[in-house]
Every structure is written in C-alpha cells, then in structure tokens.
Amino acid sequence: MDSIRDKADSTTDKAKGEGKEAFGKATGDKQTQGEGKMDQAKGEGKEGMANIKDKAGDMMKKVTGDN
C-alpha cells in the first residue's frame, strides 16, 4: 500500500517539476527552471523506490508462499 502512495507522490512531484521547468523557461528564470528539474528528479527517485518496494514484496510472497 505504501508503494501506491509513493507512486502518487512521484507523479505529483514530476508534474509539479514539469510545470516549474516550463514556467522557468517561459520567463527566463533559470532558478525556477532548475527547481523544476530537481522536482522531476525527486519524483523519479520516489518512483524507483516504489518499484523496489513492489519487487521486494513480490519476492517475500514467493519465499513465504503467500499470495
């Protein structure tokens, strides 16, 4: 269940970052553009962690025989 929340958070961070980056590009604000890129990277990291949690959970189910 945590991985679902993590994936939702990652999507939010990536969308927020894309918006900031686009706004920064449109206004010539390099700092806002950079913040947008950082938000997107943060979202990618959260998504990666969620995927790892999913894989670990799947492996535990195989090991313990739980379905």
Could you describe the 3D structure shown?
With 67 residues, the chain is mainly alpha-helical. The chain has one domain (2-58). Helices cover 91% and strands 0% of the residues. The protein has two helices and no strands. It has helices spanning 2-27, 30-64. Helix 1 (2-27) runs antiparallel to helix 2 (30-64). It starts with a helix and ends with a helix.
**Assembly of the depicted chains:** single chain
Helix/strand structural class = mainly alpha
Major beta sheet summary: none
What does the overall shape look like?
rod-shaped
Mean pLDDT: 93
Strand content: under 5%
Low-confidence stretches: none
The overall number of domains is 1
List the helices and strands in order: HH
Distance between the termini: 15 Å
The number of distinct β-strands equals 0
Layout of strands and helices, then pairs:
Layout: H1 2-27, H2 30-64
Helix pairs in contact: 1-2
Kindly summarize this structure in a few lines.
The chain is mainly α and 67 residues long. The protein is 91% helix and 0% strand.
Keywords:
single chain, 67 residues, mainly alpha, 91% helix, 0% strand, rod-shaped
